Amino acid sequence: MSQAEVSRMRPPLVPLATLLGRELRNEKVEKPLIRYGQAALAKKGEDYFLVKPDCLRIPGNPSTSFSVFAIFDGHNGISAAIFAKENLLNNVLGAIPQEVSREEWLQALPRALVAGFVKTDIEFQQKGETSGTTVTFVVIDAWTITVASVGDSRCILDTQGGVVSLLTVDHRLEENAEERERVTASGGEVGRLNVFGGNEVGPLRCWPGGLCLSRSIGDTDVGEFIVPIPHVKQVKLSNAGGRLIIASDGIWDALSSDVAAKACRGLPAELAAKLVVKEALRSRGLKDDTTCVVVDIIPSDYPVLPPTPRKKQNMLSSLIFRKKSQNPMSKLTNKLSAVGVVEELFEEGSAILTERLGKDCPSYTNSGIFKCAVCQVDQPPNDGLPANSVPFFSPASRPWEGPFLCANCRRKKDAMEGKRPSRPTVAA
Fold first, then answer.
1. pLDDT for position 272
2. Residue 198 neighbours by CB under 8 Å, 6+ apart
3. Cα atoms found within 13 Å of the Cα of residue 301, Cβ hemisphere only
4. Closest Cα to residue 231, out of 339, 322, 137?
5. Which residues are in the PPM-type phosphatase domain (predicted)?
């Protein structure tokens, strides 16, 4: 490929003043207020949380602010949870192009979350430590909420319509038949613990390793069929607002989503988080680390989340979630917004990396050097292959068709899909 061809493929540079102008024009509806609180009780000390309400998409421009809240529930030690807390956000943001509008940023976020989770897992496994962690990672930009999760921590949404919705998928082998099939198809075994006499006890686990979860970050000593590829869901609230409850399984093993939401309605976020933890303790006792973060997304003209109106559940259940309208300016949209409907923008849970990155994933830099879609490291084209290429694919033949993966990330991809064994390279 000639330099002229590369130049034509480069995305045009956008002046900062133009970007700022776009942001101002896009702020048609005033941003909501974000209020949050957290509470925790430790049993093993392996739960961690992240609260960053003051992130900026464009440095120095407050109008581009967004918030991040996350729960990391570690197992077999704390190293993976701490590592993910310290590195995951930067890895996600590093996978989003810089010169984009807010709308383009939000559209790129689901793919960037996948890349960020996988990159964090690869980097942690290179340390040679064996702990693992679940992750529930929430990004709030104005009225748009994007949630990525692996494991069995959970995020629920309590809208002003009074209906509680689950924004995550539990990756427990016991409850998730689709994940059981994926693990066995990739070379793992699923079964219960065998005790003396041949009796089977406890929840379903995958072997080797004996992990109850099918997705996590870390777990170097478990097969690569335990993947870090998250389920991602993106929704847009109406301007009535709503409440998120993000918590580790110490909460959800004790309380249902409905009970947790109803237990703290009408309380400010900080008191709500404490009450959810207290209710879980009262229900089950302290059998596991128990961590809860409550986030209220509040209309700017309200000091607290407005009380949930009492409406008929059967009417709202068919309206509370709807797919993105073909005509977002329609009168129907306005009517549904008035009752607190939530617009579903995106949802994907596939564990196939190439499906999650997409064929249109940018694979080249302004210098003409190719960039790995996962680790974001610049690579000469002959050092990697498009992730969807066949073994006999020639790097000299249209290598820019994405997603482009470096050799290391391609090995990770193949191992996750059961195509080859993978042993992490431990850094010296």
1. 98
2. none
3. 4
4. 137
5. 28-297
| Cβ pair 146, 90 in contact under 8 A | no
How far is Cα 149 from Cα 72, in angstroms, rounded to an integer?
Answer: 10
- Distance CA(228)–CA(415), nearest Å, equals 12
Q: Evaluate if residue 259 carries a pLDDT over 60.
A: yes
CA–CA–CA angle 267, 253, 309 (5° rounding): 30
Cα–Cα distance, 105 to 65 (Å, whole number): 12
Q: Kind of pairing, strands 189-194 and 200-207?
A: antiparallel
Q: Where in the chain is the domain with CATH 3.60.40.10?
A: 32-170+225-351
CA atoms within 13 A on the CB side of 106: 22
Q: Is the full-model pTM beyond 0.90?
A: no
Full DSSP string of 235-264: EE--TT-EEEEEE-HHHHTT--HHHHHHHT
CB atoms within 10 A of CB 403: 25
Spatial CA neighbour of 376 closest among 360, 385, 365, 387: 365
What pLDDT is recorded for position 91?
98
- Please give the single-letter amino acid code of residue 398: R
CA–CA distances in Å: residue 364 to residues 111, 123, 384: 16, 22, 12
Q: In this predicted model, what pLDDT tens digit does every residue of 370-402 receive, in sequence order?
A: 889 999 888 776 555 565 553 323 333 344 456
Give the residue from 354, 353, 371 showing the smallest Cα distance to 362. 371
Please provide the DSSP assignment of 41-66 as one string: E-SSS-EEEEEEEEEESSTT-GGGEE
Indicate the class that CATH gives domain 32-170+225-351.
alpha beta
